[in-house]
Amino acid sequence: MALIHFKKENLKKLKYPFFSLLSVVAIIVVLFLLLPIDIQQSLAWGIYIISAVFGIFLGVLLSRLNTMHIRLLKEKEEFRKKNNEIHSYMANVVHDLRSPMATIYMISELLENDLESISESERELLTTIKNTSSSMLDRICYILDNSRLEKGLNSGNMIAGNPYEVLIEAVKKHHILAIEKNIEIDFSQVDEFLINVQFEKEALDSVFCNLISNAIKYSMPDTKISIASYIEKDMIRFSVQDQGLGMTSDDLEKVFGEFTRLSAKPTGNEPSSGLGLSIVKKFVEAMGGEVFAFSEGKGKGATFSFTLKLKNKR
After folding, report:
1. What's the gap between Cα 108 and its chain centre?
2. ∠ CA 78-83-88 to the nearest 5 degrees?
3. How many whole angstroms from its chain centre is CA 83?
4. Residue 146: other Cβ atoms inside 10 A
5. What is the mean pLDDT of the chain?
6. How many angstroms separate the CA atoms of 190 and 165, rounded?
7. What tens digit of pLDDT does each residue of 271-312 get?
8. How far is CA 155 from its chain centroid?
9. Could you tell me the pTM of the whole model?
């Protein structure tokens, strides 16, 4: 009732200027009719000429505005095409850089682990090469992932199926990194027979890889990373829990931001670009889900989780 009353009051306020304008127009008409006939005719011709000139001016103005609008639309389309071409070119260049950079990383890692006769300074140099190439790989992957996100995930690539195989492949990719720190990756709590989960394979692979990589980086040696899945109404939730350094409340507020530096540092001096978790958030949201981070505090580990939709559920 208060809302209706408010609207009526507004209508009353609007009526006053309307009636005032109507009164002014009425007075002008009456004064015009009181004038002699010859003056009325002269004024009428003057009004007619002014109206005609104004009409022509308005027509020319509208024509020019329309021409300008069409030109701007064409320029906008040309800019969009050029922008897409530049993005495509840069994505191809960055993609071509990924393979040689990965090769440099793998060779430096093999040399660091297998050569026992090298000096300490040489070993430090190999470690620097490995860490630098790893950081570059992270940035290359970030650029490629962002390029995909800017174009938008192809709805034709979204499937309703079982994401278990995607998880297994992501775990395999990080098997060696986990072994180096004697970290166990336990995914026994993930349902192997999930169905109708909506996801895009490459996007989900990036999500799992970034979360597992992050858990390994911030976990102490001889600990465990636990991955689980849960059905929650019309969603499936995946969680990645580590026994690492944990996070402060301030960390939790900014953990999904780009180039974020947290209070904790990687336990094995691994490089960290601060980009992986921002990509996780973007990909999950692009697939229609949400991301979450939880930690009881410093030294108490962290849990990252995300949801995906189940098909044919409301």
Report:
1. 34
2. 125
3. 19
4. 17
5. 80
6. 11
7. 777 778 988 999 999 999 999 999 998 889 999 999 999 987
8. 16
9. 0.65
- The pLDDT tens digits for 160-218 are 899 999 999 999 988 888 888 999 999 999 999 888 899 999 899 999 999 999 999 99
More confident residue, 12 or 159: 159
Concatenate the DSSP letters of all residues of 193-225 into one string. Answer: T--SEEEEHHHHHHHHHHHHHHHHHTSPTT-EE
Strand-pair partners of 304: 240, 293
Residue type, 227: I
Paired tokens of 51: 């109206």
Residues near 273 by beta carbon (within 8 Å), at least 6 away in sequence: 135, 138, 139, 142, 259
User: DSSP character for 157?
Assistant: G
Identify the residue whose tokens are 């191809």: 92
CB-based contact 163:204 (threshold 8 Å): yes
Cβ 293 vs Cβ 255: under 8 Å: yes
Task: Give me 153's structure tokens.
Answer: 């995930």
